[in-house]
Amino acid sequence: MKNKYWLGIALGLIILIGFMYFGNGALSIGNFLNDGKGPSEANKDITFRIQELGDGYYHVVAVVEWKVIPKVRGKDILGISFEDTDNDFVVNYDTILGRQFYKASDGTQETSKTIIYSLAEHMNHFAPGSEGVAHWQNLKDDWGKYKVTELKQELEFIVLRDKGNDTKKLTAEAVFLHMIKNNTSMNNGKISITYNNGAEILFSKEKDRSSYKIMSKERAEVLY
């Protein structure tokens, strides 16, 4: 009963945090244990955070905010992986969410939308595993007279710590891969994620790797 209580609070926080990220305001919650935001880059900002929710639950979220809309908009990949801790942490699959926010303009009018990906309804967009979660999104392209002017991506979920183990920290890394050339074979290809001196995306078809550029890796750590 207690676990259900905390999980209910955790799910509520995911919705609230998602609103603050993708709604009208900037994220302002101040009790994040680690802010993995790297230095600002010319074309994007990447933020990776771990937040303690209580009773062994932790919320992890990675966000990519494009400052310059990329020319190639294909299947970009976000992943979050955990340093091997002998399965001391378990991903709650029910909390896995991806989001893509875009704003577009035709020069006189603007429109915007947040696309939400859940594991239940978009299973083919996710690759969950024992070492983390990988997630791909088709970046929104221009259409008609409308040109995309803002673009933001997110992957988030909750992990539960096994209090019976003696692990003293949670170390995780977010990795972001941007597709630099369109690759139709990715329609049938599969991805997975592992932790090998950091988060690493694996491709079922090795040739697909050449279609991507590793744009950034950000690490966050929690001690307790």
Could you walk me through the main structural features you see in this protein, from its secondary elements to its overall organization?
- Helices cover 9% and strands 52% of the residues.
- With 224 residues, it is mainly beta.
- The protein has a single domain (2-223), classed as Sandwich (Immunoglobulin-like), CATH 2.60.40.
- The strands form 3 sheets. Strands 1-2-3-9-5-6 form a 6-stranded antiparallel beta sheet, covered by helices on one side. The protein has a 5-stranded antiparallel beta sheet with strand order 7-8-4-10-13, with no helix packed on it.
- β7 (126-129) and β8 (132-138) form a beta hairpin.
Strand fraction equals over 45%
CATH fold name, please?
Immunoglobulin-like
Element-by-element helix/strand order: HEEEEEEEEEEEEE
Helix fraction by DSSP (H/I, runs of at least 4): under 10%
Report the CATH architecture: Sandwich
Kindly name the structural category: mainly beta
| Overall pLDDT metric | 81
Read across the widest sheet, the strand sequence of neighbours is 1-2-3-9-5-6
Overall geometric form: globular
Largest sheet: 6 strands, antiparallel
Radius of gyration: 17 Å
List low-pLDDT spans. 15-40
CATH class: Mainly Beta
Count of discrete structural domains? 1
* Count of DSSP strands: 13
* Count of runs of 4 or more consecutive helical residues: 1
Q: Measure the end-to-end span.
A: 24 Å
